[in-house]
Fold this sequence. Notes:
The strands form three sheets. A seven-stranded mixed sheet has the order 3-4-5-6-7-8-9, sandwiched between helices. It has a two-stranded antiparallel sheet with strand order 1-2. Helices cover 32% and strands 25% of the residues. It has six helices and eleven strands.
Amino acid sequence: MLNLQNLLASVARISEQAGQAIMAIYAQPEQWQLQHKEDKSPLTAADLASHHLIIEQLHALTPDIPVVSEESDEAPQRHTWSQLWLVDPLDGTKEFVARTGDFTVNIALVLNHRAVLGVLHAPDYGLTYMAAKGCGAWVLNHTGQTQRLSTVKQPSSPRLLVSRFHANGKKNQALLQHTQQCFGDYQVMEVGSALKMCRIAEGLADFYPRFGTTMEWDTAAG
C-alpha cells in the first residue's frame, strides 16, 4: 500500500528540483527556445527541462505507476488506469514568457479516478503547496518553514480571481456584473496559472470561475 505521507514529502522535493531547473532558464531568456504547439500555446525549454526531470524522478520513486505529463505523447487509455501521476511541468507558460512569476509545477497522484495527493510549487515565490488524503494541506516556504492551511473567516466582500490573459472576456465581464448585483462590493485579483487554487486554499481569495477548456493536469494537483 502506498504511504501518502512519505510520497508527499518526496514529490515536494521533486517539484522543487523541477522549479530550480525552470528558474535557471527563466534567468536567461536567450535560452528559452520559445515555440508554439499545434493549439497555439507556448512551449519553452523550461517546460521540457521540468518535464524530463519529473518523469525520471517519478519513475524512480514509483516504477509501477505510469506518468502522464502535458508534454508527453497522448495517452487516451489513461482513463482506464487505476493509478497514475498527472503532471503539468510548467503551468502558466504565458506567465513565464511575460515574466510575471505566476507559474507553477503541478504534480498529482490519481487512484481510482480520484486525486489523492497534490503538489503545486511556485518557484519564483519559493512556495510549495501540498496536500494528501488524510494528511491535511500545507504550504512550505523557501526557508523550510511549514504552515498548515485551514479555513478562514468570511471576508467583508467577495474576492474573485480572474486570469490575467482573459480578464476582459465577455463572460468574465458578465460575471462581474452578476457578482455586484448579488454582493455589492467585491474585489478582483488577477492571478496566473494554478496559483489561483493556492490563493483560495490560503484563504486569500474566494472563487475562480473557469469558462474555457482545461485539462486534468491543470487541476488535479489543486
